[in-house]
């Protein structure tokens, strides 16, 4: 990298700003920057304009050696914002970095026109190329980091969302488990369930495993622990949704859960209602009883 | 016996165990396994993959779609360079565990497969192979 800023580039950015801007915008649009509809033309134009004027300011005060230094800090922060919003809007890394890389050609053209001295032009083009490479790679860094943050956030959300404890009736809770019961999720599930048992004074908790694809010995152990903990809090567990193929496999494994289990959530709910001395009756039957008294 | 398709999957993290299950299920579906047979081989794979990870300190599994005497089958070979198993008979006994588990995985995997073989050398590692066919 050059040790000091490139005067030719600085002059070109001042003198030919309009031509560069138009060239660049045309290139971006020809490359399909607006085609996906993820970004509006006006927004793209503003980004181009702001970037160019920032670039000029940075190049003007450039110490040369280190592009992470002060003179480039506002340019970097602007580029960071652009990359982050592209990552969120669903752009690809290529499209995101393309914003910067596509500026090369307009700048090279402008530099070529600016002087007759081949050596000056070559030096300036080299300098510009290195500078834009660095800035382009920076957008990819920010892009990747933003995507990682999004993924981490979604992972946390899924783990919370996928372990709800729902109240079915006074004293009856249901815990639909969906996905793999790994140690971490078991911990979350157990905490949620125990808290709900305490909060609602529940007597019975139905753990529905219709959505668990594989029940191996580790899953079984996690279920056993959850059941034991619920029992200590004074609630009995019922397991529902053990599919036939899972039941057969569990028998071969030799796993026993030692709790009542029902084929589906509805059956488990009926059982739970009976335990708390409630029942479901049809409205017709009920009004008959009210009219005639209980049948013999 | 002919090998129709094979791949090696690394087992170094808990996520890899999930991947092994998914890949084994895909091969079992390709072989036309019933839902019960799919579940059996996937569950056995889960047990052996976790043993490879927890006790073998990580390793690999060779997942093969094979045809055995005209029958479509899935063969899995788990390998690690861990401490090995001193007493295989004991390790296969239901309820025997050195890691606070249920002690059912190894014996369970054997019962869930049509063919099972295990070789282990102290200080050198363990190799477990199972085959299940339609
Ligand atoms: N790959 C291996 N390397 C070394 N030791 C092993 C290996 N696989 C199994 N073992 C030993 O055999 C024992 C029994 O294994 P098994 O899978 O049956 O039970 P577990 O893993 O302890 O519990 P579970 O599988 O029921 O959760 C283990 O506790 C461990 O000591
Ligand atoms: Mg095990």
Please give the structural blueprint.
The complex is a heterodimer of chains A (296) and B (134).
Chain A: H1 7-15, H2 17-30, H3 41-60, H4 73-89, H5 93-101, H6 104-114, H7 118-161, E1 166-169, E2 172-178, H8 183-200, E3 204-211, H9 217-232, E4 236-240, H10 244-253, E5 260-262, H11 265-275, H12 283-292
Parallel strand pairs in A: 2-3, 3-4, 4-5
Antiparallel strand pairs in A: 1-2
Chain B: E1 2-11, H1 14-30, H2 35-54, E2 59-68, E3 71-80, H3 88-91, H4 105-112, E4 115-121, E5 125-133
Helix pairs in contact in B: 1-2, 2-4
The structure holds adenosine-5'-triphosphate and magnesium ion.
Number of strands of chain B: 5
Estimate the mean pLDDT confidence of chain A.
Answer: 89
**In this structure, how is the largest beta sheet of chain A organized?**
5 strands, mixed
Query: In one word, what is the shape of chain A?
Result: elongated
Strand order of the largest sheet of chain A: 1-2-3-4-5
How far apart the termini of chain A lie comes to 100 Å
Domains of chain A (count): 2
The string of secondary-structure elements of chain A, in order, is HHHHHHHEEHEHEHEHH
Which residues of chain A form runs of ≥5 with pLDDT under 50?
Answer: none
Multimerization state: heterodimer
CATH class of the largest domain in chain A: Mainly Alpha
Query: What is the number of strand segments of chain A?
Result: 5
